[in-house]
Amino acid sequence: MSRPKIVAGNWKMNTNLPEAIQLASAVAGRVNDADGVVKILIPPFPFLTETKKAIEHKATLHLGAQNCSTHDKGAYTGEIAAGMLKSTGCKYVLVGHSERRQYFHETHADFVKKAEQAFAHGLTPIYCIGETLEQRKNGSHYELVKNQVKEVLGAFKPEQIGKFILAYEPVWAIGTGETATSAQAQDMHAHIRMVLAELFDKTTAQQMPVLYGGSCNAQNAPELFACADVDGGLIGGASLKADDFCRIIDSF
Ligand code: 13P
After folding, report:
1. Where are the domains of the chain?
2. Which helix (H) or strand (E) element contains residue 149?
3. How far away, in angstroms, is 19 Cα from ligand 1 center?
4. Burial level of 50, CB count in 10 A (0-12/13-18/19+)?
């Protein structure tokens, strides 16, 4: 069963407006719509609209956001609603990134609400999961990742579950320069599919895109993307350079 190939660039809290426009324009100038890869740029909120303008002439280059509110609208100063994101042209939104878990203490209950908001406004949630180094060392990583999947996807109806994208991002590999080996990535991605088959069904497990994230770059992407259960990447640092990001896209 064939799944889409996807490469998403999470710029995190980097760039200013001119840099964002320059980066988005440089990526748009290089990507090839004929390669069949779904490409997603995920800039900081204030640059969504200008990023959209820079990429909208490319059919396979899409806009995503790094987070959304658990609320629909109203008196929540400083929050960004999924409906607002949709109105800027976003198609995707990250939910459950480890930095949101770690620094902002977001919980599975929050991620369920955020994904509900995403669906209510026609956005696709990219739900991020992954263990810390300590959890890998003490052998609890398989159970932990299973729980992360169950606690959030388990709250949705079958027709919604089929719309999720997952991103496995081991925390110990994020921004550290230490990437998972292709064997470690494949092993966990296969585990995730097994968990999906157990919780839901085989079709769901086979159809859901599962991306790898964590120090993925132009050098290691070809080996990671060649893994049977790895459908692409969620890229942090290497997405801030157009050339590196485009070489990652070319890695399938
Ligand atoms: P790095 O590619 O910088 O390790 O970040 C990965 C990540 O967290 C993407 O969401």
Report:
1. 5-249
2. helix 141-153
3. 19
4. middle
Q: What is the pLDDT of residues 158-197, one digit of tens each?
A: 899 999 999 999 999 999 988 999 999 999 999 999 999 9
Amino acid at 33: D
- Look at ligand 1, atom 7, and give the residue with the nearest C-alpha: 236
> CA angle 165-245-133, nearest 5°?
60
Cβ 98 vs Cβ 174: under 8 Å? yes
Question: Tokens 């660039």 sit at which residue?
Answer: 9
Active site residues: 97, 169
Mean pLDDT calculated for residue range 126-130 = 98
Pocket of ligand 1 (CB under 6 A): 10, 97, 169, 174-175, 213-216, 234-238
Query: For the CA atoms of the chain, what is the radius of gyration?
Result: 17
Please name the amino acid found at residue 145. V
> In this predicted structure, what is the pLDDT of residue 177?
86
In terms of phi and psi (left: phi > 0; alpha: psi -120 to 50; beta: otherwise), the region of 57 is alpha
Q: Tell me the sheet residues that pair with 125.
A: 93
Please tell me which residue, 55 or 158, carries the higher pLDDT value.
Answer: 55
Q: To which CATH superfamily is domain 5-249 assigned?
A: Aldolase class I (3.20.20.70)
